[in-house]
Amino acid sequence: MTNQKETFPGGIRALIARYQRRRSRLTPHAGEDLAPLDIDFKALAQIPLPKQPLPRPEGLSRIAKKRHFLLGELAGQSELAMLHGMLVAHLRKHTHPDHAPALFRRLWTEEQEWLLANLDLRWLVSAVITFADVGETEADRRLAQSLKIFFSLMKLYEAERVYSGHAPQKPFGLGKRAKTPLPMGMQDFSLLRGDLESGLLAPLWQDSHDAPAIGPLVRHLLNALNTDDGTIFRRFALMRQAAERAEKKGG
Prior knowledge:
By secondary structure, the protein is mainly alpha-helical. 55% of the residues lie in helices and 0% in strands. The protein folds into two domains: 13-119, no CATH class; 120-165 and 192-251, no CATH class. The protein is globular and about 70 Å long.
């Protein structure tokens, strides 16, 4: 194996071009414009999505391709869920319809209860990340940016974990701990006495009470995180319990 000096050849700056390519605007064909700002959300919630046509038709615009993809992912949902998905897709790009941010904020202001009840966690995470760019208040944007970093790093870690062969609910054993230091000179994490979890999560919960648009969404996500049995936090909790039993037995 080559001893590569840089994880990203050319430096972090070299990642910008790849980052920018993924953010190019979703271009429509005639008649595929985003719903107007005054669209009736209640009416959309009553319209079931059609079945995804397979194979995908030829000659679709980027907008139509995205809708086709979402028809599969949102099967059984309504046109209101589709509008939310398309807004998220638009707002992740460099440029988007001028009224898209206001429509997204209006949707979450007027239909927050419906969205929390009908969208799965994948879309709720996407929603809070979107607020990092389009939130109306500094408190909303700042908290959403923190959640964006938090969930992105969690996704990276869990994506690597699957290559270990361990199920997400299976904690690592205490007897196979490597003695090598953590990268970048970081101090080791104390399984029994470390408080990194509270240092990460408690401020997010506290800040949610000062974020008018996304506070309930953030607390919903944090409560879901707390009850999910397949996260690093649950595995650490189980490992901590095992370590405490071993310490008591040894003491």
